[in-house]
Amino acid sequence: MRSAARVAEGDADDPLLAVRFAIPGPPRAYVERRRLTARLDRGAELPLTLVSAPAGSGKTALVASWATKRQAPGGTGWITFEERDTPATAFWPHVHESLRQLGVALPVARYDTPRAHSRMLTRLAGALAGQTHPVTLVLDGYELATTEESNDIDFLLRHTGERLRVVLLTRVDPVLPLHRYRLAEMMTEVRMADLAFTEEETSRLVRQSGISLSATSISALTHRTRGWAAGLRFASMFLERSHTPDEAVDQLAGDTGNIAEYLMSEVLQTQPGRVRALLLRTSVVDVLQPGLIEELAGRSAGRTLASLARGNMLVEALSDHPGWYRYHPLLRDLLRAELVHRSPRGQVRLHKKAAQWYARQGFLRSAVGLAAAVGAWSDASAYVIDDLAIGKVLLGNDPSGLDDDLRKMPRDVKDPAASVVRAALALADHKTDRCAEELGRIGETAAPESAHSRAVELSADIVETVRSGLLDDPETVAHADLAQEELGRLEREKVVAHPELTALVQASKGMALLRDGKIDDARESLASAARLRAPGCDALTVSCLGYLALIESHQGQLRRAQDWASQSRSVAQQTGLPSVGWPPAAEIALALVSAERYDLRASREHLRAALRSYDVSEDPVIQASSAIVQARLLRARGEEDQAIDLLETIGTRSQGKAGWPGEILQLEMAMLKVVRGEPEVAVRMIDQPSDRDEASRSLVLGHAQVELEDWVGVEKSVSAILDHDDKEIPLKTLVGGRLLEVAYELHRRQPGRARIALNRSLRLAGPEDLRRPFREAPPAVRRFLETDAAPSDQKALLGSVVDSGREVLTQRSTPAGSSTNEMRDEGYLAPLTVKELEVLGHLSELLTTEEIATVMFISVNTVRSHVRNILRKLAVSRRNEAVRRARDLSLIPG
Predict the structure, then answer these.
(1) Residue 450: exposed, middle, or buried by beta-carbon count in 10 A (0-12, 13-18, 19+)?
(2) Rounded CA gap, 772 and 759, in Å?
C-alpha cells in the first residue's frame, strides 16, 4: 500500500499549514472492532464515507487502524487538520500534496481567483478520473461548513469517474447533499451510535488495561458511559488506580478528574456563552421535551438543542419522541456540578421551575423528584395532595418510585400536606400510631379554605378511613361515607377520577362491615371495590375478591365462593403477585369450601398455602377463618381437645374487639363442646342473643339440646331456624336446621316426616355439594341415613356419608405407619405473626437469643416471648424442632 504517511509534517508555526499527513498511531489500548472495519471496507467501494460523531468517540483510532491494514491498489492518503477552522485557502494545497504522494499527476495549480479555482477543480477531477485504481483520501478534522467548499467536494465526487473515495471524519455533519447521496447509495455513514462500545468490546478494552471487572460492572460501565470511547479510556485510567474496581465503577462521574477536564475543554468551552448557559439551565432534568425546554431556557432553546444534536455535541435526540433530547450522562454530571458551583440559588429555582411544569402536565413522579432533590418538601407534598395521589402512597406499590423520594422527607416539615403524606407513608408500613400522630398535626397548621386545603382534608379523611379500618374502629364506616361523599362531589364536578381512592374507601368500609357481621352490606362494598380494577390496586382487588370468596364460603354458597376465589387467584397471577401463599383470603375460602364438601385433603392443602402468607396473622377475619378450618380438620380426626385449645388461643388474642370473627369462633367452639360431651357448657356459651346470625346460634343450641334430650327446646330451635326466609340465613345453617328436624321427627317416631325433612335438606345441599352437615349430623340422623332413607337421586351427593358412623370411626383411628400427630405435621395450631416468622428465620440461621435481639432491635425478653409462641404454635418443645417443622411447612426456606 502506498500511503501519505511518509509525507513531511506541516510547519507548526504557520497556522495555514497546521496539518499532519501521517496516519495516526493506535492508542495505548486499542480494541479491534471488526463490525466497524467491515463497514468501512464496504464504504470504500462508494464515493463518500462519513464518520460523524462527538469528540472522543474513537473516530480517528478506528479509521487509522483500518487505513493502516488496508491493501488498496490506489493507496490511501491522510490529512489531519489540527485547527478546526482551517481556511479554505489552506485546504486545497494540502489535498494536492497528499494526492501527489499517492501518484496522481497534477499540474501546478492556482487558487487565488474564482476562474483559477474552477480550472483547478476541473484539472483535478480529470487527473483522478484517469487513475487506474480508486484513490482514498481521509480528511480528519476538517469541517465542511460553507456551501462553496461543499460544492467543490460534491463536484469531485461526481466527476472523477468513481476514482476518488473520500473518508470524512468530523464532529459536525458537512454541508453536503447527504440526502441525495443516501438516495443514490453513494455513501456509508458511521455515527455515535455505531461507534459506541458494546459490552463485549468494553470487556476487551478493560482487560487490555489489566483491569478485572465482573459482568455486572462491565454492563454498568458501558451504560454509564453510553459506550463513549473517551469516557471508557478515562474510566480505565480511574479504575487502574482503585483496589476495588467493581466498587469504583459506581463512583465514576463526569464532574471530576480527567473526564471533567476533557468535557470542559473539548465540549463545553467550544460553545458560545449563550449555548453554555442553555446547557446549564436545562441540565437539571434527565430528559428534555417540548414545553419544558422553553420553560427552562427560552423560546429558541428547542432550535438550539436540535442544532447541538446535529452537531454531535453529546446531545442525543430521542428518535421515538420528536423534539425530545437528553445529555450524555457524563456531560450531564459536569453541567450540574458547574451549575451548582456558579449559582446554587439558581439551581434551586430551576429545579422548582421544572417541578412546577411537570406538575402542571400531570407528571407527578418527576415533579416530586425534582422538588425533593432540593429539599422543597412542602412543594413535593403539595403536588401529591393536589393530584389526589394519596392512594398511590397508601398502596405503597407505585412502580415509579414515588415513595422512595417521599420517605426522605424530614419529620420537622410543618405543613398540612406534608403531615398527610407522612401519615400515609406510616400507614403503608402498618405504623398506625405514627399515622395518628401525623394526622393530629394537621390541625396545628390549618390553612385557609382553598382547593388545596380541600384536597388536604379529603386526603386526610381517606388516610383516616384506612387507618381506622385496620384498627377495627367502629367509626370506620362513618369515615368512609364522608370520604365517599367528597369523592362523589369531585366526580360530579368533572374533576379527574381517582378510582384507586374509591377502591380504598370501599374496601376499608367493606372490611369494617364484615367484621361487624353486616354481611350483605360488606359484600356490596367489597364487590364495588373489586369491580373498579383501579390502576395500581392489583393487590387490593385480589384481597377484595378473596374476601368475597370467604363470605360466600361461610354462607355455604360454595360454588359462588369458588368463582370469587378463582377470580382472585387469576388476577394475582396476571399481575405478578407472589405465587406462594397469595391470595390468603381466597386460599382460606377454598379450604372452607373443601371442608364443607368433606374433601379433607384438599382443605389441608389450601390451608397450608394460606398459612405461608404473612398476611394471615394481620386480619381477624382471616385469623378466625383459618382457625375454624384447622378446628374442623382436627375434629374430623377426633381431636376435639386440640381443636378447642386452638380456638381458645385465637379467641383470647382477639378479646376486646371480637365482632363477627369472635362470634363465629365462639359458635365453632360451642359446637366442639357439644361433640366433646359438654352440651351444658355450649348452652352457656351462646345464651346471649345476637342480631348478627341468630339462626346459626339456634343451630348450635339445637345440637346441644339433642344431647341433653331437651326435645321441646329442639323444636323451638328448629322453628327459630326454619322460620327465616331461606335467603336470610347461611345455606349450611338451613341444611343443619333440616337435619335437626329429622332428629326431632325420629324422636317422635315419625319416620315419614323425618324422610321428608331429610329430602328437603338434600335438595338444598345438592347444588353446592355440601356434605359436612350430614357427616356431623346427630347419631340418630346418621343411623337413619344407613337405613337407605335417602332417595336414589341423592346418592351421589351423600357418597359414603350413608356409612357415616363407620367413616367417622375410621377417621378417628390412626392409619398404619402414620403418626398420631399427622394433623399437626400438616398444619399448625395458630398462624405466626410477622415478627415470629422473622425470629424463626433467625433461628434457622443458628443465631443466639442475644444476636436476634441485636439484629431486630428488640429486647432479649421480647425475643424469648416470640420463641415461646413459636414453639407453642408449632406444637414442638425445642428450637431445632421448630425449624424443621417450619421447613416442612414451607414457612422458611429449606
Answers:
(1) exposed
(2) 16
Output the CA torsion 462→464→467→473 (10° steps): -120
CA-CA distance, 213 to 222, in Å (whole number)? Answer: 12
- Strand 19-20 relative to strand 76-81: parallel, antiparallel, unpaired? antiparallel
Type and span of the H or E element at 372: helix 364-373
Backbone phi, psi, residue 52, to 5°: -120, 115
What values do phi and psi take at 235, rounded to 5?
Answer: -65, -40
CA proximity to 218, closest of 230, 206, 234 = 206
Residue 640's Cβ-side half-sphere holds a number of Cα atoms within 13 Å equal to: 13
Alpha-carbon radius of gyration of the chain: 41
Secondary structure element (H or E) that encloses residue 135, with its range? strand 135-140
616: which DSSP letter? G
Nearest Cα neighbor of 81 from 136, 137, 33 is 137
User: Using the 8-state DSSP alphabet, how is residue 3 labeled?
Assistant: B
- Non-local (6+) Cβ contacts of 739 within 8 A are 757, 758, 761, 773, 774, 777, 778, 781
Residue whose C-alpha is closest to residue 289's, from 323, 316, 259: 323
CA distances from 614 to 123, 539, 823 (A): 87, 14, 21
Helices vs strands, H then E, count in the chain: 48, 8
CA 585 to chain centre: 23
DSSP 682-741: HHHHT-S--SS-HHHHHHHHHHHHHHHT-HHHHHHHHHHHHTS-GGGS-HHHHHHHHHHH
Q: Judge whether 5 and 23 are in contact, CB under 8 Å.
A: yes
Rounded CA-CA distance 229/58 in Å is: 6
Instruction: Identify the segments of the chain with pLDDT beneath 70.
Output: 1-19, 26, 28, 83-89, 444-448, 494, 579-582, 613-618, 653-658, 688-692, 725-727, 788-831, 894
Cα separation, 81 vs 94, whole angstroms:
10
- Closest Cα partner for 705 from 683, 733, 738? 683
Q: Is 168 helix (H, G, I), strand (E, B) or coil?
A: strand
What is the spatial distance between Cα 755 and Cα 761, in angstroms, rounded to a whole number? Answer: 10
pLDDT at residue 1, as a whole number: 32
Per-residue model confidence (pLDDT) at position 15: 41
Average pLDDT of the residues of the chain? 85
Alpha helices in 429-557 (DSSP H): 432-441, 451-470, 476-492, 499-515, 519-532, 538-555
Cα-Cα-Cα-Cα torsion 623, 629, 635, 636, nearest 10 degrees, comes to: -160
Contact 585, 571 (CB under 8 A): no
Buried b (16+ CB within 10 A) or exposed e, 276-292: bebbbbbbbbeebbeeb
Contact by Cβ (8 Å): 596, 772: yes
Which residues are CB-neighbours of 680 under 8 A, at least 6 positions away? Answer: 704, 708
Q: How many CB atoms sit inside 10 A of residue 362's CB? A: 10
At 893 the pLDDT is 74
Q: What's residue 827's pLDDT? A: 43
pLDDT score for 19 = 65
Q: What is the pLDDT of residue 639?
A: 87
**Which residues make Cβ contacts (< 8 Å) with residue 381, sequence separation at least 6?**
406, 409, 413, 415, 417, 418, 420, 421
The b/e string for 691-728 (b: 16+ C-beta within 10 A; e otherwise) is eebbbbbbbbbbbbbbbeebeebbbebbebbbebeeee
Question: DSSP letter string over 289-339?
Answer: -TTHHHHHH-TTHHHHHHHHHHTTSSEEE-TTSTT-EEE-HHHHHHHHHHH
Q: What is the pLDDT of residue 398?
A: 75
Euclidean distance between CA atoms 491 and 487, whole angstroms: 6
C-beta of residue 685 within 8 angstroms of C-beta of residue 669: yes
**Any bridge partners for residue 170, and if so which?**
52
The beta-carbon contacts of 116-122 under 8 Å, at least 24 apart in sequence, are: 117/92, 120/92, 121/152, 121/155, 121/156
Residues 20, 78: Cα–Cα separation, whole Å: 8
What are the beta bridge partners of residue 432? none
